[in-house]
Input
Amino acid sequence: MLTLKCPYCGVQACETELSPGYEAHLKRFGPGSSDDDFETYLFTRPNVKGVHFERWRHAYGCGKWFLAARCTTTLEVFGTYSAQTPAPPAEIIEAIKSKRPDWSPET
Amino acid sequence: MSNAMSVLEGAVSTGFVTVRDAGLTGMVSVRADLTDAATVAALSSCGITVPVVRQIVDGVAWMAPDELLLVTEYADAPALAQKVQAAMADTHALVHVVSDARAVLRVEGAGTKEALAKLCPVDLATLAPGEVRRTRLAQVAAAFWLEDAENAQIICFRSVADYVFGVLQMSARKGSEVGVFTR
Ligand SMILES: [Zn+2]
Output
């Protein structure tokens, strides 16, 4: 059971109250971009085994989208944060590093 | 003018708790940024105080960072919506009467938390009276709050009211008590 704290309403929401939005912090390639960039944006995901940044929606609750950092193998949650955040915030990075010293954010 | 009817038509079911149609209830949905000073001022001019997160106070329920639900008498909802609409004319807001889009049910009795806990992924052991919990009730969206330890109100969409009544009835079937909150 995955439980994520919604940063908007503060509820500890179990997975069944949430809708998945898949990988977070994607850079959009839209009209005018190259075919390769557009394809990568649409389809190519690292499918990480370990630390992952994701979008979730509190679908049955307050309805808001938010972001979460968790481990895809252990379901350990490092933190959740506002959807209006272009990159993982420092406190989330710190929380991950304290649990996963070998991990470093991708550049 | 049609004759307004509550969708459950006064249904009552008695199990280890009583599940009943709460009858026609006035509900006005307000969508606006609740942290915005102009929004707060406009609501205040109508006598509406924005509650803290997830609370319901005097019929004003915090539903989301940009959503309130005003709960009132069925007949009073249109006038209330008009008043709020007028006060919020200069702010980015949406005000709408949703009385006929929703249904309200009541669960009453010592096993109220238990009947709800079987259906909703909510920690009923820590849920305080007056806290609105929007959640999943079996397979549909619902919001409920405890008035006290033994009474709850549930709001769901009108179209699923019969389903909600049915699953609550089943959850409250006599002999199916788990007793987890009484130990
Ligand atoms: Zn939420």
